[in-house]
Write a structure and sequence with these properties.
About 30% of the residues lie in helices and about 15% in strands. It contains 13 helices and 17 strands. A hairpin with a 5-residue loop joins β5 and β6. The longest helix is centred in the middle third of the chain and has 25 residues. The protein starts with 12 loop residues before the first strand and ends in a 7-residue tail after the last helix.
């Protein structure tokens, strides 16, 4: 590829911040709120026009489980967001804690109120373009792009909540993408919303999910009439009156760190959503015969790209041992949920059941594992933290901790730790007193059992 050298010029610089959070998904929202709550002057930089990421812009229609099948374990800010979101879906039973439907427009407002209500500032439609760091591993300045052109932002501490570890990657931190050998990443999903659904037929008809052997997805696959639908991934939730949100299908060979791949994936995803509407209208007509494709996500539902290498790498063995850590900042009980590449995608009920039994590694009620603070501290960066699906884990465990409840809990811990580090002379995130951090988190309602 040819290269081009920028003309030397000065950029406007805003150096007034204690903490800058990049990425306004679940982890970014709780990170910004927690840092501001602790008294840090905090800026949240978000590339789209709304906060919430997967639950809003990507239209993921339900929360992954908030409980360990006995009690809520994602607490603090995560629990507050969950209950506020649940109040916007009154059709959901009051006792339900797992797979609770999301109203994306209501969730946008919940995140706005959370972040702004705690005193953080938000800069929308602003993209991270470059990172300047010194030889000692301290990030000094971010270069961002928005309607004002290029400008520079500076803080004492930075939190990477981009999901793709963009800030850390641009700063030269060590990371691994996928298997680390260029193999296929977990496929993405382009979520969508169908309206004008017959609500009674949807509630009382056949279970659509691929775990039901009578799901219409198997007749759809067997028909061969919808070749874009490649496997039995079909999750859905009633998110409003006569309105069903779908986390369905896969966009394979998708890489969210490659802008050309993103562009190809979104166009393919929109075609896939149309194929699902037409297929469901044909094979589940009682519920979907008159369904209308109202919306596709403005961003792709991404499961995997880069993982930062931190001071500790959480492993599959830690997961299987239900490991606890002296510096853990949250617990996690979600199963290992790794979506396979296209040639391994299950097409029959028997294949799907066998694959789930082999790969999911589900916990018994009451079981969970800890996530240590050291998974949030990139090895070679002094004043940076990371939260969300790109924290320091091996590939299998990333398939568990990547989901929204865990990201919310990790984000709150990262934000609180960033505020503590910003208040110290060296702004060293690795030197944060984790006993003090845990005490503060517990004071804010976090679930950190001995």
């Amino acid at each position: 590829m040819e290269t081009f050298s920028l003309t030397a010029r000065s950029l406007p610089l805003d150096a007034s911040w204690d903490v800058i959070v990049v990425g306004g998904g679940p982890s970014g929202c709780t990170a910004a709120a927690a840092a501001a709550r602790q008294g840090a002057r905090t800026l949240l930089v978000e590339g789209s026009g709304a906060l919430g990421g997967m639950g809003t812009n990507a239209l993921v229609p339900a929360w992954c489980p908030f409980s360990d099948k006995k009690q809520i374990i994602y607490r603090g800010l995560a629990e507050k967001i969950f209950h506020a979101s649940k109040a916007s879906t009154p059709h959901v039973p009051k006792a339900q804690l797992d797979w609770v439907a999301i109203s994306p427009e209501d969730l946008k407002l919940i995140y706005d109120d959370l972040v702004l209500g705690h005193g953080a500032q938000v800069l929308f439609h602003t993209t991270l373009a470059s990172v300047e760091r010194d030889a000692d591993g301290a990030v000094g300045t971010l270069v961002v792009a928005n309607k004002s052109g290029l400008s520079a932002l500076r803080a004492k501490v930075y939190i990477d909540c981009t999901g793709d570890a963009d800030l850390c990657h641009f700063a030269g931190a060590e990371s691994i993408k996928g298997d680390g050998e260029g193999g296929a990443l977990m496929p993405a999903t382009h979520c969508f919303v169908l309206t004008n659904v017959d609500e009674y037929a949807y509630r009382h008809g056949e279970n659509l999910h691929g775990s039901n052997k009578n799901s219409p997805i198997y007749a759809i696959l067997a028909s061969g009439r919808y070749p874009l639908i490649a496997d039995a991934h079909l999750c859905s939730n009633l998110i409003g009156p006569r309105t069903v949100g779908f986390n369905a299908g896969h966009v394979f060979d998708f890489d969210n760190t490659d802008p050309w791949s993103i562009s190809r994936g979104l166009t393919r995803g929109r075609k896939l959503a149309r194929a699902f509407r037409d297929a469901l209208a044909e094979f589940a007509p009682a519920a979907f015969g008159n369904a209308y494709l109202a919306l596709t996500g403005s961003m792709m539902g991404v499961r995997e790209t880069r993982r930062v290498t931190g001071d500790y790498v959480l492993t599959f063995e830690d997961y299987m041992r239900r490991q606890s850590f002296p510096d853990e900042i949250c617990r996690n009980s979600y199963y290992i949920d790794v979506h396979r590449k296209v040639e391994e995608a299950a097409r029959s009920f028997e294949q799907l059941k066998k694959s789930d039994e082999t790969h999911s590694h589900r916990y018994a009620p009451g079981e969970s594992h800890g996530v240590p603070y050291r998974c949030l501290t990139p090895k070679t960066l002094r004043n940076v933290l990371v939260a969300g699906r790109c924290v320091s884990t091996d590939r299998l465990v990333q398939g568990s901790v990547r989901v929204m409840p865990t990201c919310l809990a990790m984000g709150e811990a990262a934000g609180l730790a960033a505020a503590l580090a910003a208040a110290t002379p060296g702004h060293d995130t690795h030197a944060v007193d984790t006993a003090h951090l845990r005490t503060l988190l517990c004071g804010y309602g976090a679930y950190l059992p001995e």
